Amino acid sequence: MNDSATTTSDERLAELVEALIIAFGPKGCRIEQGLGEATLVVPREHLVDVATELRDGEAFGFEQLIDLCGVDYSAYGQAEWETSRASSTGFGRGVERDAELDLTGSERFAVVYHLLSVGRNLRLRLRAHVDTEQPMIDSVVSVWPVADWFEREAFDLFGILFDGHPDLRRILTDYGFVGHPFRKDFPLSGHVEMRYDPELARVVYEPVKIEPRTLVPRVIRKAGRHQNVESN
Fold it and tell me: How far apart are CA 122 and CA 106, in angstroms?
């Protein structure tokens, strides 16, 4: 990418940020910037109004919702793996899961929306935090119909409720599944395991037999692969 293209991209981003501040600053929204992108943090009570203006406003035109997902910030900034240095034995260095989770923080859960304006060649990220005890937020299916399955996925994996969704059901886990697998306090091995019982001719659920453990991936490197070879 040449300098003029980079400058044009920066100018478009600056214009977008200025328009966002003017339009949504009075609603309590704030802007975060980094890596050439902008994030609009929206109070959940204003989400649908802001989303509608972002879709229809002449200064925005974000007609397309690319993705929607939930986020659990209870272990944000904490690492499970030691990655600051490499191992000389060919094995990665795993560490125990001893992170202290903040399960009661006021901003533990959030919903993130990735928007695209095709006409203006702009992208924008929305983030709205929800209540920790009863995570609920308004559905944006009325704004972007494609949000239908995305919201069902966030409900299934994070337990976030979307008020006004036309058919809020689990979409990835089994019927009768207990818990939400993408929450940080959900065990990696789950609560139950399932198998097909030929005698009963159905699937049965049993207690988990897998011992919780930290997996250490094995990396095999050919000797001298990255070494300089000197010749006479």
Answer: 31
